[in-house]
Design a protein that fits this description.
Layout lengths: L5 E3 L6 H8 L3 E2 L4 E2 H4 L2 E7 L2 E6 L8 H15 L7 E6 L5 H8 L5 H4 L8 H26 L4 H5 L6 E4 L2 E5 L5 E6 H13 L21 H35 L1
Parallel strand pairs: 1-4, 5-6
Antiparallel strand pairs: 2-3, 4-5, 7-8, 8-9
Length: 253
């Protein structure tokens, strides 16, 4: 797993524990783990000090996005047992020195970039959290439609109508039948983001709600799905572009 990541770890440290934490670190714009995207170049541990090198898609990746990923990386890895310090390095990035100096000393983005930081990273993070929610929800909706559920039927489904079974998930239909829908990860990711946004995840809650937690009716669902698809397509296009640029950069090294 993730064979392209160079590792230098002591026998006492399980690489899967490290990978599990890194899978929680997302590219804020793409809503995908940086590990899956190929941004992690190397991980080295000496004693209780971990050093990780990230290789972002372009030399000019926006400092705010880069800072968020580096900051999240350090925070997640500091939760690994036996690791008491983490140093994040950025390879081939125009603001690498400033970002590294800020992230590795626990500074905020505005402290690291006092002359440039005109935005609140918390607000920016919230924006992409919402975009990711719509993307994950759209995947769930497409799954439900692909197995024959109408918009009317989807609109009245509750969270309690959905069941996980191994690596797949199932849904109870209006007539009481339970049918297979798709990969469990699609539903799990949707519920994970829903919980992160403090939206109702109780069994009686509507399966599909908007960003404010309001139920989406059958009449609203068609237009809602079109807007959600636009968000998903844009994120996928950005992801494909980043992957192609990163592959080209790695090929030159």
């Amino acid at each position: 797993m993730y064979d392209d990541v160079r590792l230098s770890l002591p026998d006492t440290l399980d690489q899967e524990v490290i990978f599990r934490q890194l899978e929680r670190v997302l590219d804020p714009e793409l809503d995908e783990p940086i590990l899956k995207l190929g941004f992690v170049k190397s991980i080295e541990v000496e004693s209780d000090h971990l050093t990780i090198e990230l290789h972002l898609p372009t030399y000019w990746c926006a400092p705010n996005f880069s800072y968020m990923m580096a900051e999240d990386t350090r925070r997640e890895l500091l939760t690994v047992g036996g690791i008491h310090d983490v140093t994040v390095r950025l390879k081939d990035h125009f603001a690498a020195k400033t970002i590294e100096a800020g992230v590795n000393t626990g500074k905020s983005f505005s402290q690291a970039f006092p002359d440039e930081a005109s935005e609140d990273l918390c607000q920016l993070s919230d924006l992409f959290l919402r975009k990711g929610y719509i993307r994950r929800q759209e995947r769930l909706l497409q799954n439900l439609k692909s197995v024959g559920l109408s918009l009317e039927e989807i609109a009245v489904r509750r969270i309690g109508d959905l069941y996980f079974e191994g690596e797949s998930y199932r849904i109870r239909r209006n007539d009481g039948r339970i049918c297979d829908v798709g990969e469990a990860e699609v539903a799990r990711q949707y519920f994970q983001r829903r919980a992160e946004m403090n939206l109702d995840c109780s069994p009686a809650a509507p399966l599909i709600i908007d960003l404010r937690g309001r139920e989406v009716t059958a009449e609203q669902l068609e237009k809602y799905l079109i807007r959600a698809r636009t968000v998903r397509v844009a994120l996928q296009a950005n992801g494909s572009f980043c992957a192609a640029v990163l592959a080209a950069r790695k090929g030159k090294n």
